[in-house]
Design goal:
The protein is an alpha+beta fold and 253 residues long. The protein has helices at residues 9-16, 25-28, 72-80, 84-90, 100-107, 109-112, 116-139, 144-163, 174-181, 187-206, 216-231, 239-245; strands at 17-23, 38-43, 59-61, 67-71, 95-98.
Length: 253
């Protein structure tokens, strides 16, 4: 009998997560007493689910509070585009669980990194800065927590472009960033820091050790091998798949 399709979306996260970590302020070293615990993960949908008209989801919110997971292919696709949230997830210092597939994914971290990060990190930071400017015009002050995270992102991008290494924990910058969050730094000074960091990022991009493009072929090879290996494993979803993989036509016995 064919198993129930997700309502079981959450079961994909529960039963097929290959990598799970904590992100947000706790990973950045910026947590305070009232900080949430943001959990992020990657699940590997059984290959057989892709043989149906109704494909598995590209992402699932939950089942826990502040929990969000991506299917492996979608995660890799976004990482190859240098999505800041995805790349940071791959480099979280707070790993909660990882299996063999997850370890292979983590071993590919540098394959996703390229000078594209300059555009994507900076574009995201500029978008957030425009919202902060609008807050200042409307309310007389920015949302200070958001201002702190824009600074954090610009520091991260600059240092990544300089070194080729993405570091998540802010380290020695913690206290100066938390002072911004508390509203203790005048907005003009915060603006000046943002402008300076953006300029330093631009300079770092010009001579960055990062390659111009990510290693798409290496990532795709990992994805194909992983899908194929899973297709050959028996499971509750794959009455049809096993026959096709072994060379029989659908409906043949």
């Amino acid at each position: 009998m064919r198993p129930e399709a997700p309502g079981s979306h959450e079961l994909l996260v529960r039963d097929h997560t290959v990598y799970a970590c904590v992100m947000g302020s706790r990973a950045f070293g910026l947590a305070t007493e009232d900080s949430d615990t943001d959990r992020r993960g990657v699940f590997l949908a059984p290959t057989a689910l892709f043989w149906r008209f109704d494909k598995p989801p590209t992402h699932v919110e939950g089942p826990g509070e502040e929990q969000f997971s991506w299917e492996l292919e979608r995660f890799c696709e976004l990482a190859l585009r240098a999505n800041p949230n995805i790349l940071e997830c791959l480099h979280s210092p707070l790993v909660e669980s990882v299996d063999d597939t997850g370890r292979e994914l983590l071993a590919l971290r540098e394959a996703f990194l390229s000078r594209r990060v300059h555009e994507t990190f900076t574009r995201y930071a500029h978008g957030q800065r425009r919202k902060l400017d609008a807050d200042v015009r409307t309310h007389g002050a920015p949302r200070w927590k958001h201002a702190m995270h824009v600074l954090r992102l610009l520091i991260s991008a600059r240092d990544l472009l300089r070194t080729g290494v993405l570091t998540i924990d802010v380290g020695a910058a913690r206290e100066s960033l938390l002072a911004v969050r508390r509203g203790e730094v005048p907005w003009p000074e915060v603006e000046a820091r943002m402008t300076r960091l953006a300029r330093e990022g631009e300079e770092a991009a010009a001579r960055s050790p990062l390659p111009g493009e990510p290693d798409r072929r290496r990532v795709e090879d990992f994805l194909v091998r992983t899908r194929r290996a899973l297709a050959l494993q028996p499971g509750p979803y794959d009455e049809v798949v096993q026959g096709v993989v072994r060379g029989r036509g659908v409906g043949e016995h």
